[in-house]
Amino acid sequence: MTVSPVTLKNTKLGQDLLISPPTLGLRGRIRVPGDKSISHRALMLGAIAHGETQIQGLLLGDDPRSTVACFRAMGVKISDLESHTVVVQGVGIDHLQEPSDILNAGNSGTTLRLMLGLLAAQPGKFFTITGDQSLRSRPMMRVIQPLQQMGACIWHRRNGLAPMAVQGQPLQPIHYSSPIASAQVKSCILLAGLLTAGQTTVTEPTLSRDHSERMLQAFGAQLTIDPDTCSVTVSGPAQLQGQSVVVPGDISSAAFWLVAAAILPDSDLVVENVGVNPTRTGILEVLTMMDAHIEFMNQRTVAGEPVADLRIRYRTDAPLKACRIGGDLIPRLVDEIPILSVAAIFAKGVTVIEDAAELRVKESDRLAVMATQLTQMGAIVRENPDGLEITGSRDLKAAELDSHGDHRIAMSLAIAALRARGCTTIHQAEAATVSYPDFFSTLSNLTKF
Ligand code: S3P
Questions:
Q1: Ligand 1 in contact with 183 (CB < 6 A)?
Q2: Is residue 225 classed as helix, strand or coil in its secondary structure?
Q3: Which residue among 62, 206, 209, 355 is best mutated to probe the pocket of ligand 1, counting the most ligand atoms within 8 A of its Cβ?
Q4: CA 220 to CA 238: how far, in whole Å?
Q5: Whole-structure pTM over 0.85, yes or no?
Q6: Which residues pair with 126 in a beta bridge?
Q7: What number of other Cβ atoms are within 10 A of residue 290's Cβ?
């Protein structure tokens, strides 16, 4: 009989994950849950379209559930989430109802920031919005300020923190040059622009994920995209028509398995049905730069998004190589930096991650948390204001770690623990349910002594 090296234990403060290194590599074929960014957008565009939107492969993590709860509270009918196809009955672009209670975006920055663009442009309706402790400490001025330039009426705590209140207004179109490459900022303004007469343009310094642009076009919005200047223009007011959306597997969730297979001897793993939109594949480029053995198989397009099966094999012939990660690459792998820093520990040389200060305002301060947690495991990690320097080829030792309530930290540390001597404990491991509810059962199925 084989025993799994993974155990989850309930405690007063959440769940502890106890994890020991397996003696065998990761082998077989797996699927990861639906893409989180695409799931939010399918729900939101479905809610404001005319007619029905059918969604297959919706991520049933805590974050999209927060989006569902907010839109249900505004009168949108969304069918049972556990069914194969989730159906959203669109109410039309300016027919969201004023909710009778505070909208709660939970841990989800995407829910709060994108929804704000829609709410600010619903004339005559008043909304209050909050989130969990992490979300209430994350910067919202980045969306409040351009919305205010459009004439939005928003009240907030000091420095633009939630909770906030919005009095919906007719807005004016603007041309907004965003100082940061952020898909949440871009999408917020485009959604506000859908309800605003005229041309609303967003320009970003480098291209961030373009799922909003692809899906808005599929739902019938008029967009002009200029890739040379990283600009998108939406013409409003727009009429959207409900669509059928098939959500591909999330490359940000696949990333944990790709790195696990690259660092665990004897691994040969296929992750099927992964979204490989070029604005998200920075992780694959970096793993290839590090000399990992990755193959794209069965490439196809599903509902306007490129999809592939990814095979990754542990290299017995050569170790991974350190590399430099920065510049335009950052927005294309922004959520994968925690797990890439785990890969860097097993690479020869010093991996430098730079231009990544944005990580300090994610679900946790991911640079600080990864640096302290990996250091406790014996890694050599230097924390810089905008990144990390990780000296590779280190053996890790088991330690008592904490996810700080951040889903991607919980999962990244679990993968690091697969290569640590002894039994590692990760506190607040349940945070993984934000984006990957089955992560620990998949980990348990894949790892064997
Ligand atoms: C997201 C955009 C990214 C990413 C987040 C999801 C989205 O954030 O980190 O997990 O769905 O638009 P930023 O837009 O803040 O870079």
A1: yes
A2: strand
A3: 209
A4: 8
A5: yes
A6: 167
A7: 26
Contact 222, 234 (CB under 8 A): yes
Q: 335 CB under 6 A from ligand 1?
A: yes
Counting from 1 in the atom list of ligand 1, the atom nearest the Cα of 36 is 11
Question: At 302, which amino acid appears?
Answer: V
Instruction: Return the ∠ at Cα 398 (arms to 443 and 13), rounded to 5°.
Output: 70
Token pair belonging to 369: 């948390």
With contact defined as beta carbons under 8 Å apart, do 323 and 286 qualify?
Answer: yes
Closest ligand 1 atom, CA of 331?
16
pLDDT in tens, 379-412: 999 999 999 999 997 789 999 999 999 999 999 9
Q: Is 110 in the pocket of ligand 1 (CB under 6 A)?
A: yes
Give me ligand 1 centre to Cα 340, in Å: 17
Catalytic residue set: 335
Structure tokens belonging to residue 186: 């871009």
Q: Which domains does the chain have, with CATH numbers?
A: 6-34+248-446 (3.65.10.10), 36-244 (3.65.10.10)
* CA within 13 Å, CB half, 196: 29
